[in-house]
Structure of Protein FAM57A isoform X2:
Amino acid sequence: MLLTLAWGSLFFPGLFALSTWALRRSRPEWTYADCVMISTRVVSSVQAVLATGSGIVIIRSCSNVVSDRGSGETLGTSSLAASSRQN
């Protein structure tokens, strides 16, 4: 999980910087604010597609999304889930 967080912390700012740079080079008549706005929307769109894809994977891998715990569960996550339900 920590590795995924680290890659996301590098990927999304990198995608933003790359798209801003590419827009500034391909569209020199656009202002910096225009390039930043479009780059923000590109990053947001990629995040939305990835979130939708992960949601579809979760829904398709569980028979009951509300009560299924999934196949990747460990003892630590199981006890954490059990303790949070008791409260």
User: Anything to note?
Assistant: Helices lie at 2-26, 32-61, 75-86. The chain is about 75% helix and 0% strand. The chain has a mean pLDDT of 84.
